[in-house]
């Protein structure tokens, strides 16, 4: 799935309240690290093993209401949500941490995610 931009607080709330896990990239045009990790985020969003997760972006300067809602002050920040609850955070342009967050979202998408974590199953390992 390609990434999609979120254009309003109402849309943001609707998206994060859904049953499908979402990972949101909070970025800014003036942010150098955001420019470095942005293409990595887009490539990860297109990988078939992450098909159970939706990927979105929020431009911090264009969506101050959303930024206030989630209280993000450092960029880039990646947040994962499911059913209206935050399930994880990754701050900074660190591909390994972003991949771990996406794996957490993938696990949340699986109906057996609680069983798998109880059994100690390993997350998907791959290069960013």
TrEMBL record:
Pfam families: Thioredoxin (PF00085). SUPFAM superfamilies: Thioredoxin-like (SSF52833). One of its GO terms (molecular function) is protein-disulfide reductase activity. It comes from the Eukaryota. The lineage of its organism: Eukaryota, Fungi, Dikarya, Basidiomycota, Agaricomycotina. This is Thioredoxin. Residues 108-128 are annotated as: Disordered. Keywords: Disulfide bond. It comes from Armillaria gallica. InterPro entries: Thioredoxin, Thioredoxin-like_sf, Thioredoxin_CS, Thioredoxin_domain. Residues 1-111 form the Thioredoxin domain.
